[in-house]
């Protein structure tokens, strides 16, 4: 009889597993055969988690951070108090305080628990404002982050934690750092004030379609530029980076830059409606931003494979369904009053 060898599964913790990217990462790592513990202060809102274990923990609290990483080999640190421009530009103190606590606690707990690999989710928001003052900016390469001048406290905290994660290699922890550039896709926040621009536009355009009213509001003149990376590409990049030997921060983003007006037009075309843009004042973030992917192609052979149109179609269809279900529920609640 052939002796059966029991393969010991690698155990991972994903913090922020109740959120958008963390939830997708749980599903991805399950397909790769990992034992996964999800950690968050809330459960995923739109779909049941596939994690082997899901712990409701507040990582600002030291004892809870220790529980989060106990007995695992790898940690993917995605937990953060975050949202779109509206949220980030008006909650500086809370964001800096909470995210610093989350990250200081999680990485130190991981060190004490002898975790081998540690992924930190940084952001394109670390890049200096003075390189992003025009709409047609040069794509941002990793070395552009210094000298530092991030626009908001959110970016300053990300930059500090990048340094923290990098220096934790002194303890033998293999830290990996990604700078995400506007990740989007289904199962992300689409209403309530923390949603990002692709989700907000999908909702506004779906609403315009359902109400037969073409007007949608845009913050600023809509000429500000960004690049948008689909979630499936993002999780593949996270995994490749985590398993690589590369210890410096790396861009994980799309390198096709579009204006906010163009983004709205693409979504309107997917929805099959004509829209009328109404420009109003509101937080716009930097004037232009794009990802330079030279380094991620070179060291990981990673590059985005899902086109903006293809990704937005999936995102739009999901949000239109969510919106219809939301409206129907409200109507039924009114009737039952
Ligand atoms: P998200 O808001 O959907 O997920 C973050 C999760 O962290 C949330 O579920 C939240 O409940 C959880 N969290 C907050 N405070 C916590 C606490 N005290 N203890 C435990 N959990 C806590 O955001 P996301 O889009 O999935 O982003 C994941 C990570 O990637 C974040 O660190 C974010 O800053 C970074 N990032 C995201 C983007 C993007 O475009 N989505 C861009 C740049 C960087």
From TrEMBL:
Whether Heme counts among this entry's keywords is no
Read off the Pfam families from this record. Answer: Epimerase
Q: Which UniProt keywords apply?
A: NAD
Q: Which SUPFAM superfamilies match?
A: NAD(P)-binding Rossmann-fold domains
Please indicate if the UniProt record lists Magnesium as a keyword: no
| InterPro entries hit by this protein | Epimerase_deHydtase, NAD(P)-bd_dom_sf
* Domain NAD-dependent epimerase/dehydratase residue range list: 12-253
Organism domain of life: Bacteria
Spell out the PANTHER family in the cross-references: EPIMERASE-RELATED
Q: What is this protein called?
A: NAD-dependent dehydratase
**Natural source organism:** Candidatus Yanofskybacteria bacterium RIFOXYD1_FULL_42_10
């Amino acid at each position: 009889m052939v002796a059966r060898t029991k393969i010991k599964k690698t155990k991972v913790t994903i913090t922020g597993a109740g959120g958008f990217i963390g939830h997708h990462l749980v599903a991805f790592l399950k397909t790769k055969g990992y034992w996964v513990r999800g950690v968050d202060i809330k459960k995923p809102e739109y779909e049941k988690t596939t994690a082997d274990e899901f712990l409701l923990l507040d990582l600002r609290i030291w004892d809870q951070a220790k529980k989060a990483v106990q007995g695992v080999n790898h940690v993917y640190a995605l937990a953060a108090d975050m949202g779109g421009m509206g949220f980030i530009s008006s909650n500086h103190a809370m964001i800096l305080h909470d995210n610093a606590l989350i990250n200081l606690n999680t990485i130190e707990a991981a060190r004490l628990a002898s975790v081998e690999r540690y992924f930190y989710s940084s952001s394109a928001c670390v890049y200096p404002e003075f390189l992003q003052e025009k709409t047609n900016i040069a794509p941002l390469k990793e070395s552009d982050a210094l000298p530092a001048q991030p626009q908001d406290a959110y970016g300053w905290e990300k930059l500090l934690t990048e340094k923290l994660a990098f220096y934790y290699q002194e303890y033998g922890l293999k830290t990996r750092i990604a700078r995400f550039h506007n990740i989007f896709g289904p199962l992300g926040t689409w209403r309530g004030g923390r949603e990002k621009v692709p989700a907000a536009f999908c909702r506004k355009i779906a609403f315009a379609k359902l109400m037969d009213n073409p007007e949608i509001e845009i913050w600023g003149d809509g000429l500000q530029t960004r690049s948008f990376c689909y979630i499936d590409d993002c999780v593949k990049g996270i995994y490749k980076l985590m398993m690589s030997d590369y210890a410096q921060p790396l861009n994980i983003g799309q390198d096709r830059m579009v204006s906010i007006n163009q983004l709205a037009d693409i979504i309107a075309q997917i929805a099959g409606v004509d829209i009328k843009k109404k420009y109003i004042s509101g937080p716009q973030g930097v004037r232009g931003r794009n990802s330079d992917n030279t380094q991620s192609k070179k060291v990981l052979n990673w590059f985005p494979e899902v086109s903006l149109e293809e990704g937005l179609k999936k995102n739009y269809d999901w949000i239109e369904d969510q919106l219809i279900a939301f409206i129907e529920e409200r109507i039924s609640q009114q009737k039952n009053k």
